[in-house]
Amino acid sequence: MTSRNHLLFEQSQQYIPGGVNSPVRAFKSVGGEPVFFQRGEGAYFWDADGKSYIDYVGSWGPLILGHAHPEVVKAVHIAAQNGLTFGAPTEAELEIAKLICQLVPSIEQVRLVSSGTEAGMSAIRLARGFTGRSKIIKFEGCYHGHDDSLLVKAGSGALTFGNPSSAGVPAETAGHTIVLDYNDIASIDAAFNQWGKEIAAVIVEPVAGNMNLVAPRTDFLTRLRALCTQNGSVLIFDEVMTGFRVGLGCAQGLYQIKPDLTTLGKVIGGGMPMAAFGGRRDIMQCLAPLGPVYQAGTLSGNPVAVAAGLATLKLIQAPGFYDKLSNRTQQLVDGIAIKARNHGVDFCTQFIGGMFGLYFSKKIPGSFAEVMQCDKTAFNRFFHAMLEEGIYFAPSAFEAGFVSSAHGDNELDKTLYAADKIFKNW
Ligand code: PMP
């Protein structure tokens, strides 16, 4: 019998380019056909053929509470009943803005948008408008959304396709983007020496999660902070992935570094399309209607999305939430690593809060170049074997993985059992 997944994929390819609405979903990197999903609950989701999977992707980060958390769903229901959108301010927007500012002290003012791409694009425009400069620095393998000036040597799907820059980005636009190596302090020093006073902004993932997971060297973020301060450049932390994922204070709380601007997404929308950018009041006040930098959105601060975000942000403030999440993540990755070691497979892992990296390599990579040396063929084999066992990891060797508060002992046991079986026959 032909699977419904397969039929849906075949038909989708006729109407949707590549059959998907975001490229990395297409399984191009790992080969095979994508799985179509119908329903999710807690740590599990079910495909179009009724097969269940333990989900370690969590919609690429938002689902820190697992699928369809009852309190988030309830908040969405209530908000929807009161009207789907007004295109005018609401009290709930004030509530979430206050909460974000409280939880992330570097954010004095915040504006809500609908995607991480919008947040990154707007933060860059704002930094340019504020400084009157054009050049920006980004790091190879970091992904900040698909804005033209940021789609240069980007990570995630852009890496998966071996297509670091996109067609359709004018050379003039990309020409303002200086791309450096993540964790390479000498190269940032050199760039600031050469262009210091022309640099509007440095944008960085404080933990890189779009080239697998690469942790920042201790002095990397500190040096960025110092150079931006010395040169009057805006330091932007892209915390779309790390925000409320690595800890309640985000990565900036973990590493005790105060960026000038921060972008947020994923977790703050609780699974609905919402993201945000915010930071220093003097910079944020350059935005329209107060200042000359234009930025807007019909559905920005959408009441249903805000309700999902607020419900999520309330639940993650429970005492011990992040300790439990980190412990679970550690048990998962340590457990898989032990199974690999027992069967002599070159494999290692690391985790930060609720995000993790899996590397088919002897050593944890600390740079983009080292990530590229990991054994991608081995990852693809592992991915498909685990998928067969009902364990869903990101369909690419260049993505971080995520654990939710709904992942319990049962799910860990099943995952480790599957990993053991696969590595035994490696
Ligand atoms: N920044 C980072 C660090 C991301 O991981 C992503 C998405 N994976 C984005 C920005 C873009 O967000 P979105 O897909 O919501 O546009």
UniProtKB/TrEMBL annotation:
Pfam family, one: Aminotran_3
Cofactor: pyridoxal 5'-phosphate
Gene Ontology MF terms: glutamate-1-semialdehyde 2,1-aminomutase activity; pyridoxal phosphate binding; transaminase activity
Parts forming coiled coils: none
Localization (cell): Cytoplasm
Catalysis: reaction(s): (S)-4-amino-5-oxopentanoate = 5-aminolevulinate
UniProt enzyme class: isomerase
N6-(pyridoxal phosphate)lysine PTM sites in chain numbering: K266
Protein's UniProt keywords contain Cytoplasm: yes
Alphabetical keyword list: Cytoplasm, Isomerase, Porphyrin biosynthesis, Pyridoxal phosphate
GO cellular component: cytoplasm
Keyword Signal in annotation: no
Pathway info: Porphyrin-containing compound metabolism; protoporphyrin-IX biosynthesis; 5-aminolevulinate from L-glutamyl-tRNA(Glu): step 2/2
Family annotation (PANTHER family): GLUTAMATE-1-SEMIALDEHYDE 2,1-AMINOMUTASE (PTHR43713), GLUTAMATE-1-SEMIALDEHYDE 2,1-AMINOMUTASE 1, CHLOROPLASTIC-RELATED (PTHR43713:SF3)
NCBIfam families for the chain: hemL, PRK00062.1
HAMAP family assigned to the protein according to its UniProt record, in alphabetical order: HemL_aminotrans_3
Subunit description: Homodimer.
Family: Belongs to the class-III pyridoxal-phosphate-dependent aminotransferase family. HemL subfamily.
Protein name as it appears in the record: Glutamate-1-semialdehyde 2,1-aminomutase
Species lineage: Bacteria, Pseudomonadati, Pseudomonadota, Betaproteobacteria, Nitrosomonadales
Gene coding for it: hemL
